[in-house]
Write a structure and sequence with these properties.
Largest sheet: 4 strands, mixed
Radius of gyration: 20 Å
CATH superfamily of the largest domain: N-terminal domain of the delta subunit of the F1F0-ATP synthase
Strand order of the largest sheet: 2-1-3-4
Strand content: 5-15%
CATH topology of the largest domain: Peroxidase, domain 1
Oligomer: single chain
Number of domains: 2
Structural class: alpha+beta
CATH class of the largest domain: Mainly Alpha
């Protein structure tokens, strides 16, 4: 998928034009559309194709907004992204919107990858540790990856913490290669 320039600008424009109480619901609606763009090749082609005129695209966006029960502001925002020719970059824009919204709320999002499910005690301890490390409350999403063998890999924004056996073996391999 093509990277959109100025993603942060479009995300900020969204956050400036939507009330704080409406943001969580609006993000869910945008995420649904972004997921469709990301996963459905035909829909993505339709969204970015210049062969459809503004009237056809307007009808499609109105239909889509109705399906996700989007507010008039969301519909207007989608039309704005279409006018700017960046609607195909909605998945990237939504990621930035989420990050900026969490920043506004003084929260961080961590993607925790483990080789097996973790218990509630470990989850609570990890949450406290990440709060100390980031200075923010942390929302966590857990992902199971059997190839890790053991340990944990945590991504918060662009920062990666890797204490997995797979990661440590990779570092060891790199040191051997360096000499």
């Amino acid at each position: 998928m093509k990277t959109v320039k100025g993603v942060k600008k479009y995300a900020k424009k969204f956050l400036l034009n939507v009330s704080k109480t409406e943001i969580p619901r609006a993000i869910v609606q945008l995420e649904a559309i972004a997921k469709l763009i990301k996963e459905d090749r035909e829909f993505r082609t339709f969204v970015i194709s210049p062969i459809f005129d503004d009237e056809e695209m307007g009808r499609m966006l109105a239909f889509l907004a109705k399906k996700v029960k989007a507010s008039p502001r969301i519909s207007k925002y989608l039309a704005y992204l279409h006018e700017e020719k960046v609607l195909g970059g909605l998945p990237q824009i939504v990621e930035v919107i989420n990050a900026l919204y969490l920043e506004m709320k003084k929260r961080a999002m961590a993607v925790v990858t483990t080789s097996a499910p973790v218990g509630k005690t470990y989850e609570a301890e990890l949450r406290r540790t990440l709060k100390r490390a980031t200075g923010r409350d942390v929302d966590m999403e857990f992902v199971i990856d059997k190839s890790l063998i053991g340990g944990v890999r945590i991504r918060i924004g662009s920062t990666m913490y890797d204490s997995s056996i797979k990661g440590q073996l990779g570092l060891l391999r790199d040191k051997f290669i360096e000499g």
